[in-house]
TrEMBL record:
Membrane spanning stretches: 16-43
InterPro entries: NDR1-like
Localization, UniProt: Membrane
Single Gene Ontology BP annotation: defense response to other organism
Protein name per Swiss-Prot or TrEMBL: Late embryogenesis abundant protein LEA-2 subgroup domain-containing protein
Top-level taxon of the source organism: Eukaryota
Gene Ontology CC terms: membrane
Keywords, alphabetical: Membrane, Transmembrane, Transmembrane helix
Keyword Transmembrane: yes
PANTHER family (alphabetical): LATE EMBRYOGENESIS ABUNDANT (LEA) HYDROXYPROLINE-RICH GLYCOPROTEIN FAMILY, LATE EMBRYOGENESIS ABUNDANT PROTEIN
Originating organism: Cucumis sativus
Length: 201
């Protein structure tokens, strides 16, 4: 019979491997616990992203010269809204641009950060007064056609940065962005309400 050879050597796991394993297990456990806490906090608090929207406006004046210069004066009401029941919301870097037929007419800027209390809103009243804006021949035709049919459209683009604190979730930040059309009746300047909001659809 062939001889049986028994090895007396025993393999030992290096202590560094044990330490690395313990560290990895601890990190994994911490991540799982943090995920559970965040999930429970989210379900309990149900945080809502603050929003901005256009709620009203009025076209005070619109003039165009024979040389192709456009002058516009209007009022625009932008509403900052906070639907969180347990957190105030701060808004900063609020900046919009008003355009007609692709050309910039005026900037609408909130020069200071502002706060909206929980379950509340704040209306920002912008008075837009443009200088004499030169239009090309195509833009002049669009303007003339809009005035004749008594319906004119402007574009409003911009954003505002929001920040609010939600319990265990900590401080949250989000950019509210607007990219919408504003329509008016030039004859009496009245605003035609249209959806214009940063709310997620």
């Amino acid at each position: 019979m062939p001889p049986n050879f028994l090895s007396s050597l025993k393999r030992h796991t290096h202590p560094l491997i044990w330490i690395a394993g313990i560290i990895c297990a601890t990190i994994a456990l911490a991540v799982i616990i943090a995920g559970i806490v965040i999930f429970i906090g989210y379900v309990t608090i149900r945080p809502r992203v603050p929003s901005i929207s256009v709620t009203d406006g009025h076209l005070e004046r619109i003039r165009s010269s024979r040389t192709g210069l456009l002058e516009v004066q209007m009022k625009i009401v932008v509403r900052a809204e906070n639907q969180n029941a347990k957190a105030h919301a701060g808004f900063s870097k609020t900046d919009f641009v008003l355009l007609f037929d692709g050309i910039e007419i005026a900037s609408l800027v909130a020069h200071r950060p502002f706060k909206v209390n929980k379950m509340n809103y704040l209306d920002l009243h912008f008075l837009v007064e443009s200088s004499a804006i030169p239009l090309d021949s195509t833009q002049m035709q669009h303007l003339s056609w809009s005035l004749k049919r008594d319906l004119i459209q402007f574009d409003l683009k911009g954003s505002s940065r929001t920040r609010w604190r939600v319990g265990v979730l900590g401080p949250l930040k989000f950019w509210c962005r607007l990219d919408c059309h504003l329509r008016f009746f030039p004859r009496n300047g009245s605003y035609i309400p249209t959806p214009c909001s940063s709310k997620q659809k």
